[in-house]
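Project standup — Tuesday

K.O.: blocked on the structure for the chain from last sprint. Re-posting the sequence here as requested.
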Amino acid sequence: MRLFVVHRWFGTGIAIAGTALALSVWRGWTAVLGRFDFSSVIVITVALAVQGWFGGALVHGADHLDF
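H.V.: unblocked you, prediction finished:
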């Protein structure tokens, strides 16, 4: 059950962060934020990778990447 909760909240956080980043780019705040936008993309990318692992663990079990 805990894995599902973490997976759900990671997804919610990614959606909120991605929406905030898209709005900042759309509004033209990139000149003001500068490095923050690039850092946000890196953080969201890492969070997506972690979210993917949690999703795989939900479907295939926690040892789904053991070869």
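K.O.: great, moving the ticket to review. The radius of gyration is 15 Å. Helices lie at 2-26, 30-33, 35-60.
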